[in-house]
Amino acid sequence: MPHFSDSLSSIFGWVSIASWIIVYSPQIYENYSLQSGEGLSILFVVVWLLGDFCNLLGAVAGGLLPTVIILALYYTACDLLLLGQIYYYRWKQNRSLSHEHEPLLTGQCIEEHTPMKRLLIRYTACLLFVFATGVLGWWIGNVTEDEKRPSPPQGDLRWQIQVLGWTSAVLYLGARLPQISKNLKTRCEGLSPALFFFAIFGNITYALSICTKSMDPKYLFTNAGWLAGSVLTVFLDVIVLSQIFYYRYRTSELPTSNVPSQ
Question: What does the alpha-carbon distance between residue 237 and residue 179 come to, in Å, rounded to a whole number?
């Protein structure tokens, strides 16, 4: 019978996994609907891809569970898909608009005119679904075979693992900066808030999965790279969500004016 802290850690781990599985879907769909990927900063996606690649190498080198390695592969594939969308839609637009100096968004953001109350209800329902899915995943894993349950890094002290962990943390942090800068120019057009909303939820639950397992200083120190990558990016993602809220809801309450084309 697993200890309560181990069970709680595993539940948070499964909830985090459930959140990260769907985190890319809203932005991929947003890009498809707009036939444009210009809401995303290329540097944001590329640096995020490098971070996920380091995370993948760390999972393989650390001998983590196959589930964790498969998920790291999934994250990397989604990053490549987002990058592919950006360049494909640019190529497609350049074919039809040979005189454009810069690819433009071809439509309006899907959630731009969604009332705030409805958006909150939608996101709350999604959170409950993700949490329920995570708990169900934990329960199935616990019933079938205990050792197949996902778990956070166990604190490998080898310097290669630590370097990969801290490198991915720095990359995850650095990836947000060009996106925040781009949002000031694009007013967050073409950017799905769900991408960052579920990234925040996934990072918080992942950090909780580590902390609830053990608060032993040595354990926390050896997992510090993964903790830093999860916790610190939450603050930057909150900034991005604040930008989206400001440009889509705060500015919508102000008198309308023509925005100069860029």
Answer: 10
Tell me the average pLDDT of the chain. Answer: 80
Give me the residue spans of the domains in the chain: 4-251
Residue range 1-23: mean pLDDT, rounded: 80
Task: Give the CA distances from residue 144 to residues 12, 16, 64, 138, 139, in Å, rounded to whole numbers and listed in that order.
Answer: 18, 20, 19, 10, 9
Closest CA to 201 of 18, 39, 45, 46: 18
226 vs 1: CA distance, rounded Å: 28
Q: Do the Cβ atoms of 131 and 17 come closer than 8 Å?
A: no
3-class DSSP state of 74: helix
Any idea which of 96-100, 103-107, 147-151 has the lowest mean pLDDT? 147-151
- Label residue 260 by pLDDT band (50, 70, 90): very low
SS3 labels along 199-239: HHHHHHHHHHHHHCCCCCHHHHHHCHHHHHHHHHHHHHHHH
Are 149 and 141 within 8 A, CB to CB?
yes
Q: Quick one: average pLDDT of 227-233?
A: 89
